[in-house]
Amino acid sequence: MATIAIYSLKGGVGKTTIAVNLAYASATLSSRRTLLWDLDPQAASTYLLSSARTREQAQSVFSKDVEPQKLIRHTAIDRLALLPADPSLRGLDLLLHELDKKKRLQKLLTGLGGAFDRILLDCPPGLTRTSDQIMHAADVIVVPVIPSPLSERALAEVMKHHDGKAVILPVHSMVDRRRKLHAEALARHPDWQVIPMASTVEAMTVRRAPVASFAGRSAAAQGFAMLWQAIERRLAT
Question: What is the value of pTM for the model shown?
Answer without folding.
Answer: 0.95
